[in-house]
Structures are given as structure tokens and as C-alpha cells.
Amino acid sequence: MENNRFEQTKKVGILGILGNVILLILKGAIGFTTRSQAMIADSLNSAGDIFASLMTFIGNKIASHPQDNDHNFGHGKAEYIFSMFIGISMFVVCCKLLYDSIHTLIFGSELKFSWILVVTCILTIVIKLSLYLYTRAVAKKFDNILLNANMNDHRNDCIITTFTLIAVLLTLKNIYWFDSLTGIGISIWIGYIGIKFLIESYNVLMDVSVDKNTEELILDIINSYSDVKKINSISSTPVGYKYIIFIVIAVDGNMTTFDSHSLADSIELDISKLDKVYKTIVHIEPF
């Protein structure tokens, strides 16, 4: 399951890089030729997408390495470190695009209409929609922040390019301000998504606790054992997309050491079967 997860994520990263390189060259050439601020913004967004796909590829490769003497719980947090890089790059692109689009809105646009712009937009939507559908199918199988980042990125690009297409078509009616507004909207959207990834990555790297649904499942498992008199504490720490769970329970003080350890082993085994649990450690205290 783990190997398949990493292999599928690797394929998503490679396809994303290839698709976005093609779109960057195409949209960049057409955007600067026609002076379309929206298309230029879209091309720079593709440059950011290439970086995001590259980070997905590298982060996934590092995260796939098994545990070793220096990393006892594996390298899973690499997913979140590289996801943070994606977030930072998106925010930088956002600031550049926002400045350029506002400048064009104030001082005027030199956009030249071309049917090549229309064809480029339609081609971009088709390619990005295909990448989105493929990435979504893989993301449904695995809980991976890098896959989710890429999936959302492809979906957002479909929406962004649709607005670019509208901006291009409006120039036929001599409406040029919508092109600049579209560039502003694209930049704000990129910044919003980038901040979301930064926050999510930061939370995991700062050892955010396991989600409430998983915690409820853990409580249900512990409470199913009649020998458990009290749950003193439950704490957790993330290792990549999974968690190490630390549990302190109280049992009858007269229970033998053998029986109490057997109880702890059974609880650890049951909890470790949960999808988001990497390892469970149960400590026994007398009630």
C-alpha cells in the first residue's frame, strides 16, 4: 500500500511537470505577443505549477524512504516541508501578478486580440481538466497533502483560464479593463491557496494533534475493553500523514503484570489498524 502510494504520487508529479512545461511555453509566448495581462498572469501561474509539481516529485521521493537509524519514524514529514515550499512560491507569484495587474489597470492595457489566445485558453482548460481528473482519482485513494495541493492547483487553473478566455472574448467589444481585473483576481486566488498550504503544512510541522474523528475512534476502541477503568490521557504527534498515539490508561491495581501488558498489546494492535495511525504506545497505571 505504501509503495503504491508513493509510485502513484510520483506519476502525478511527472505528469504535472510535463503538462505545465508545455503550457508555460505556449501561454508565455502568446501572452507577451498579444500583451494580454491575464494570459501573462496565467503563464506565470504555470511556472508556479511547474515548481509545485517538482516539489511534489522531490518531496514524495524523500518521504518514500523507510525509517533508519537517524529517522526512526521515517521521512513522512518531507511531504509537508515541500508543501510549504509550494505555498511560499504561490505567495511570491501572487505578489508579482497583483502588482503588474494593478499597474495595467491604472495605466492602460496594450492587449491585442487574437484567435490564438482563444485556442490557447481552450487547450489549457482541456489539459488542466484532464490532469485534475487524474490527480483527483489518485488523491481519493491516498491521504497525501502533495496530491491534494496538485489536485486543487489543476482545478484552480481550469477556473482561472476560463476567466482569461472571457477577458479575451470581451476585447472584441473593446472591453479591456476586464483583462486587468482577471489578472488581479488570479493573483489573489493564488495567494489564498498558497496561504492555505502554508498553514496546513505549518500545523503538521508544529505537531498538530490527530483530528477529532480519529480521536473518537480511538476512544471507542479503548472503551470496548472492560478492564480499562479510566483513560488518563491521549496525545499524538504527526509523522508525515500518519500519527503516533500515546495513551495512558488505568487498570485494576491487582491485575498481574502479564495481563496488563497483554491488554496494552491488544489495544495498541487495534488502534494501529486505523488509517491515520502509524504507531500506538499504551502506558498502564494502577487505578
Q: Report the end-to-end length measured between terminal Cα atoms.
A: 40 Å
Q: State the low-pLDDT regions, or none.
A: none
Mean pLDDT: 81
Broad structural category: mainly alpha
Strand order of the largest sheet: 1-2-3
β-strand percent reads: 5-15%
Shape summary:
elongated
Would you kindly provide a written description of the structure presented here, covering whatever features stand out?
The chain is mainly alpha-helical and 287 residues long. The protein folds into two domains: 204 residues, Alpha-lytic protease prodomain-like (Up-down Bundle), CATH 1.20.1510.10; 75 residues, Cation efflux protein, cytoplasmic domain (Alpha-Beta Plaits, 2-Layer Sandwich). It has eight helices and three strands. It has a three-stranded mixed beta sheet with strand order 1-2-3, with helices on one face.
